[in-house]
Amino acid sequence: MIYVSSILCLLRPELLPLAVLLFYVADGLPTSASFVMRIESVPENWRGKIISIGPALSYASYAAGSFALGFIAASYGSASAVYAMLAISCAGLIARFFLVETLRRISTSTSAGYLKELKYVFTSREYSRVIAVMALLGVSFAISPFLAPFLKDVAGMGDYEIAVFFSLYNLVPIPFSLILGHLVDKYKGSIPKFLAALLYLDAPFIAAFALLAPVAPIFAYAVLGSVYLASIYRAALNIYVSDVFKTHRGLLVALNAVLMANLPGVAVPLVAALWAALGPPLAILLVATATRIGAAACC
Q: Are residues 232 and 199 in contact, defined by beta-carbon separation less than 8 angstroms?
């Protein structure tokens, strides 16, 4: 319902800041619940696969939506695209009412106990490194809202080209999601090294996108390599949190959802300030590359 409200705000340009705020609230609220629901519904050796199925379906939806909304906006105007988003969002809202809870659990935790656990997680060395990885990756994802302006104003792409770009942006991870989920299940013991290698490998793709796309737009597609790698290490980090930190798993899952999904919204002003001070290429390079290298060093 909050998400539908954010779409309605798009119909009034002066309400755009409120639309963005509501969008991030709506995006964050169900994330940890959805994740826990999936991992608790399958055996441990299937967690990587089930976690991969969700993003695969989401990416397919994003790809179709990016192309369709880009086409509608280019052909009929942005207001028509907003109405299309509103119709789809309302359909999603109605679909929620058909979810059936098959197993009810009674929580034995208290607010005081939760705060005690929260303090322990933030002050314990055991957890500090994994929280640092989550936070750094969350900041690195703050470049996402700036991709479209970068493609349009810096790389010189048109609306149709940008729509195609974001369709590919979301299609890239789909063919590999289930395979990678299986590999994560199989090599759970080596996840930290696996994560570090992927994060170091990610940096050149971001650098090529930020520095070379302004010269030749074809290099904008280098970021697709980063998207592919991100689909792997995000799933791997979720599995690592679920399997290794069993004592405070629920709390860490929630922190992972908050830091990875919602911290980018908090870090957006930082990216905007760097964008204005250093220029778009250096802002994206600094935020996305430095944070990934830092996260790799913490693994």
A: no
Locate 143 and state its tokens: 């470049």
| CA distances from residue 173 to 68, 225, 271 in whole angstroms, order as listed | 19, 9, 25
- Alpha-carbon distance 114 to 208, whole Å? 44
Q: What share of the chain is helix, strand, coil (3-state, %, to 5)?
A: 85, 0, 15
Dihedral angle, C-alpha 85, 148, 263, 26, nearest 10 °: 0
Count of CB atoms within 10 A of residue 272's CB? 14
Tokens 């796309």 sit on residue: 213
Geometric angle at alpha carbon 181, from 68 and 95, rounded to 5°: 45
SS3 (DSSP) at 187:
coil
In DSSP notation, 249-297 reads HHHHHHHHHIIIIIHHHHHHHHHHHHHHHH-HHHHHIIIIIHHHHHHHH
Averages of pLDDT over each 10 residues, the chain, 299 residues: 89 88 79 69 72 72 81 88 89 80 57 67 76 87 88 88 83 68 67 83 90 91 85 74 68 75 80 92 90 88
- Count of positions (residues) in the chain: 299
In whole angstroms, give the CA distance from residue 139 to residue 145: 12
Q: Are 235 and 48 in contact (CB under 8 A)?
A: yes
> How far apart (Å, rounded) are the C-alpha atoms in residues 142 and 158?
23
pTM to 2 decimals? 0.67
Q: DSSP alpha helices (H): ranges in the chain?
A: 2-9, 16-28, 31-39, 47-76, 78-96, 111-123, 125-140, 147-149, 159-171, 177-186, 191-212, 223-244, 249-257, 263-278, 280-284, 290-298
CB 127 within 8 A of CB 121: yes
